[in-house]
Amino acid sequence: MNLRKYLKVYKKFLHTSLASELEYKANILVDLITAILSLVGSIFLLSIFFQNNGYIGGWKFEQALIIQAIYTILNGITNTWFNPNLTEIVKHIREGTLDFVLLKPIDSQFFISLKKINPSGFLEIMLGFFLLLFCIKINQINLSLSFLSLSLITISCSICILYSLWFFISTTTIWFVKTWNAIEVLRSFLYIGRFPLNSFSFSLRLFFSIFIPIAFITTIPSEVFLGLSQLWKILLEVIVASVFLVTSRKFWLFALKFYSSASS
Amino acid sequence: MISNLIKRKIFTLLKVQYSNMLEYRVEIALWAISGIIPFFMLNIWTNNNLNQSINISDVMLSRYFLCAFFVRQFSVVWVVFSFEEDSLMGKVSPYLIQPLNPFFRYFAQHLAEQITRFPFAVIIAFFFFIFNPESLWIPNLGILLLSIVSTFLSFLIQFLIQSIVACLCFWTEKASSIERLLFIPTLFLSGLLAPVVSFPAYVKSWIYLTPFPYLIDFPANLLSGNEANISGGLSMQILWIFLLFPLFKKIWSEGTKKYTAMGS
Fold first, then answer.
1. Which of A107, A250, B46, B157, by CA, is between 20 and 30 Å from A47?
2. Taking CB atoms and an 8 Å cutoff, what residues of chain B touch A200?
3. What is the pLDDT of residues A96-151, one digit of tens each?
4. Cβ atoms < 10 Å from Cβ of B263
5. Distance CA B226, CA B54 (A)
6. Are A191 and B181 in contact (CB < 8 Å)?
7. ipTM value
8. Which of B 41-60 lie inside 8 A of A, CB atoms?
9. Under an 8 A CB cutoff, do A44 and B188 touch?
């Protein structure tokens, strides 16, 4: 594969979308305030849960904060890359402009997944990192090389799963045309990723490990941070992530066979 | 004569919008599903016995969250997003010429959507009762009517707030990001995720002066049979409407003076 070509194209993508997004400077400031308020709000909610209880699902408040931090980082990544690009698929399909994408001498999935970027999501990612650093301090986590690499692996797996979920739902647009609110359903399900999985009842836990693997997205990386995670869980996450990535790729290629432009 | 004319206008608008909404049944069903976050919250509350500390039994809490779900379903407002699109696309110009405030159009759209949404919300409630048969109850007719009124008032408050934000489109191009900012306090303080009773005292001391608890917490408490100050809540809702309506009229008349169609 000509990796260099893709890197070069991506640089151009970055340049053009940053240039167009930075036109709305006040908007970025508003988005920053929104991200901060949203984090404050979820910590407030968490503090309500811990008001009279020391533990929720076996997690202390300080430990549950790690989940918030990881959720904030992942949400920032969603807002930076997944949300602006994948909602665009709906537009491409409804207006028939997917034709232009397919005709380009470049991989279509690469093009539609990375074309745009929303810089205000960066601020959210940074916010999440600051909270994570704070959590590492208050939970007295020792930073070692093996710990760092494990947490990096699990978080990148989470990103892959999250991307696949988004991409999977966006792809169904080829058949149903107006599914951008299916993404809202996914968003509301992802909301539970803010809380430790053990705090839910058994049936919900099962649902969120098998059908929509939200359990893998935030809880396992947080367990790695606390040094609680078993090796099989990490391995399982790697397997789930690769299965999701491959399936979403296959699904996209399969769906493209059914694409028949607009009004044809 | 004049009232007859207005009645006919409203009736026609509603009919048009209702048939328009019926076209997008699946979309609306998905919207209804995306509102199930209160049920996840309920699961956390009861599964960790968090409700003991606030003296609400499991059954009453599950009714509360079910009602919160219902109130939210019938008070969702998205006028700013429609208006922003119409304003950017220049569709507002023809609306402005018509002898009818364009916000009536959006208002009818919302009402029609609520009628379309109703069966889906009932189906979700039906499944809720299958899983929680002990929380089934029938509110008496007076309470039911009052809570419908207060849900409608809550819808009106949110509609007015969003219309005010939507009018900012006359000055800025991205008013929807201001709405996203305002949505955060609405999400965390309205009682959708946790009943306002459970909030810590330092929040409870000022929250009843803001419009937030009257958006979901008050109607939901009323409908579910939890403790609610009926006359106090209703009068606060009406007070907020009387405060917001002149503000909307003012910003609308200022905005339309400022308005220049795209390309002028």
1. B157
2. 40, 43-44, 47
3. 888 898 998 889 999 999 998 888 888 899 999 999 999 999 988 878 888 889 99
4. 5
5. 12
6. no
7. 0.87
8. 43-44, 47-50, 52-53
9. yes
